Structures
1.
Amino acid sequence: MKLPSLSSVLRLSLGVAAASLLLLAGHANSSAAPATKPLTVGFVQTGAESKWRVANTDSLKSEAAKRGITLKFVDAQSKPENQISAVRNFITQHVDAIIIAPIVSTGWGPVLKEAKDANIPVLVEDRSIDADASLYKCFIGSDFIKEGHMAAEWLVKATGGKGRILELSGEPGSAAAEDRKKAFAEGIASSPELKIIDSQSGYFKRDQGKQVMEALLKKHGKDWDILYAHNDDMALGAIQAIQEAGLKPGKDVMVISIDGEKEAVQSIVDGKINCVVECNPGVGPVVFDALAKIIAGQTVPAKTYNVDHVFDSTNAAKEVSSRAY
Ligand code: AHR
């Protein structure tokens, strides 16, 4: 048998080495610029209880579409148990991330632990939750405590610290309702002649706001001065009931609410609402900016709050045309 010459062995080895280097270089190149896979994200929304909520959904959906993200959307229809099972389904589907707009603040621990064990980052938007901070990446939304304080501060100034208040509260157990209630009560505490004489839930819904207001009007007649509604939709429903009872909202009784919907700000211009505290639903861009950082392995602030404003007769006319929701 003829043995290969030393020079041909050397040539062959050099060829194999060069080919290996080329292969390695190829690998190095592909790891430096990995093909970016489009993200699939699960988003579980509370429902569609208010115009604010619809605007919040639109903000997240349109931002996801702009970024080429596939958004698996679930409307939980105001049922906390639907939210938990939606998150479980997202985990089973191995989505890249999960966004939650929680109905209530409690009960999230076990399912968030399941998401964490599956290495799926969770972002919470709109309403905060009572869960260990290590179980989700961040919260993005409005500061409901601040909103309650702003409403109370405006009212104390406008009334000189006197009046009987009817409160239309939001979804029981939600951070939005609990914080707005607590902070408003704190804000009026130093005005002993400003009293909440009744408080009932209208579940953040316009029709329920109207129904509950009708019941409150039957119970209290004209023996009250101020309506504090935890959102605009309930205030707008209540205004109808107040008018049907022969009272002039905004004049015979004061109306103060939260959200800043175009219709509510217009109602200030029309003299039917006295004050609206803003709560911005348009957090889609901030949520998906945070998600991009999380996917890139960067840390994001634990809490990011909107800067919200107060509208009344001094600025509503200027503001109304530019309201986006
Ligand atoms: O959590 C935010 C609240 O929920 C908004 O004030 C209300 O309109 C919505 O449904």
2.
Amino acid sequence: SWTPDSFVESTVAELKAKLGNDKVIMGLSGGVDSTVAAVLLHKAIGDRLHCIFVDNGLLRKNEFEDVLDSYKHMGLNIKGVNAKDLFYKELEGLTDPEKKRKAIGKVFIDVFDAESHKVEDAKWLGQGTIYPDVIESVSVKGPSATIKSHHNVGGLPDFMKLKVVEPLNTLFKDEVRRVGKSMGIDAKLLGRHPFPGPGLGIRILGDVTAEKVRILQEVDHIFIKGLRDKGLYDDVWQAGAMLLPVQSVGVMGDERTYESVVALRAVSSRDGMTADWVHLPYDFLAEVSNNIINQVKGVNRVVYDISSKPPATIEWE
Ligand code: XMP
């Protein structure tokens, strides 16, 4: 019968046989799937697995440093690439959600392609594809998905012409977590909420600037830390904050303010296809709202999103 340990043992043996002395390159996102896939590959071929983690400037507060650190602790051969400015430049002035997604995807491909050329003789592209991704062949959005369109070779970036190795493509999400746990991956990492490839880029409605990213990172950090501190994080499938392209009037001391509105969203879901808003306790929402307005300059109003999917999506863009 299937156990995480037996899966690890047989998969590592298969990967060794399949990959021999070949090199594999892989883009990591900090997400559960790519991390577990990378650790499996690393068990099989050690430092012949070359991992790349791109800072697109749209990650959560401190996420790039934190995740890079945990990857290094796991012994992965990983290179962090700071490409923030390239992303901000490409996003400049863009307000249409699809154009923003495309811009983020394009820069990611460019950066990843350039990095992959620095690994000589790489033969394989590692991916964290899981079984639902395979059966759904639904157009998953974003960079990770763009990579998945490797089937139509020709006119593609060079790394896409590599052979693809996907050690998790028979597993469901809960099995991936169990495999990760059996290999000793940190529970905190395995329990992380899903986070979209385009990151805060699609949670800042309208055009994206470095300053807006900074504001939203602070807001998001207060919300997520609050969920963790109150033991609510694991009851929620996914949570985050949106920076709205709206200013509203407020009052601070004797002063009139005219500042940004943020929306908080927390949903329960099984697979992200449908979702319900979580009935977070009022006193928790009150505390988070106070903390955000008191601590984040530029924000004077907080609202809570009470829409389910469908008809609303989880992300606002
Ligand atoms: P929606 O907004 O479509 O989101 O209800 C469903 C789930 O997918 C995530 N999502 C993305 N993930 N790239 C990703 O890797 C994307 O472009 C993207 N857009 C949405 C979303 O966070 C939620 O978990």
